[in-house]
Each structure stands twice: as structure tokens, then as C-alpha cells.
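Bug #77: duplicate submission created two jobs. Keeping one. Sequence:
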Amino acid sequence: MFPFWGDNCYGNEGVSRRGRLEQKLRFLKWMRDDLETRLAGINAAIDKVEQQLGQEDVA
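Kept job's structure:
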């Protein structure tokens, strides 16, 4: 899902300012959620590597 706000090629009727802002808000929230998911994965990978390094120090 990728909303193209302000793009009227999918219909002939104009989009209100409120409609454009709502589309923009949905897009920005989608971007944020995607980035949060990616960041959680990166943080998990960092934690795992740090854990593995810690185990090597003990052994």
C-alpha cells in the first residue's frame, strides 16, 4: 500500500485539502511503522551479536 497523495490520475473528481492531508497522514504513519519494524530487527541483531561476543569473553 503506497498512497500517492495529490495524484488525480485515478479519478476525475478533485481531492479536498482535508482528503490530501488524511492521505499524507496515512502514508507518514505507514512509513513510521515500517521504520519501527526495521529498527526492531536491527536492534535484535545487535543484541544477539553483543550476546555472542559476551559468551566468547567468558569462554
